[in-house]
Structure formats: structure tokens, C-alpha cells
Write a structure and sequence with these properties.
This protein has about 80 residues and is mainly beta. Helix content is about 0%, strand content about 70%. It is built from no helices and five strands. It has a five-stranded antiparallel sheet, with no helix packed on it. Strand 3 and strand 4 form a beta hairpin.
Amino acid sequence: MNPWENASVSHIGGIATPAGAFPVSYLVEKTWGGFNDYGRLRTWLVPRVGIVKLHRKGVSFADANLIWELIESRIVTSH
């Protein structure tokens, strides 16, 4: 295990994305750090759907920022 990395579920609750509103999501926050490379990754996970939102803010030799959101999803319940 890398002592410079840490991840945990920091919040359980609803989340809204362009794909719709999800009443239950888990916000997993991960931080990392090292020589000239550190940052924070926030990932919202929804059961039976997966990742619906992601924010990455990092610093290496330049800023590395990313925002991603799910824009469409379909759950097949039967054939």
C-alpha cells in the first residue's frame, strides 16, 4: 500500500447528472501525493449503474483537471 494515497467513502446521498437524478450514490474521495505529483479524485458511484460523475484535480508538472458526467444510461431489467 502506498502511504501517500488515501481513499474513502465520504458521502452517501443523491446526485444529479445530465443522465438524470439518482437517489443513492456513494462519493469516493481519493487523495495522493508524491514528488511533483499530488491531487484529489472525487468519484460518484451509483449501484447497478457505475460511475456517474468524476472530478479530478491534480498537479504534476502542470495542472491536470478533469470533470466528467454521465449523459445517458439505460438499465435493462428483462429481455
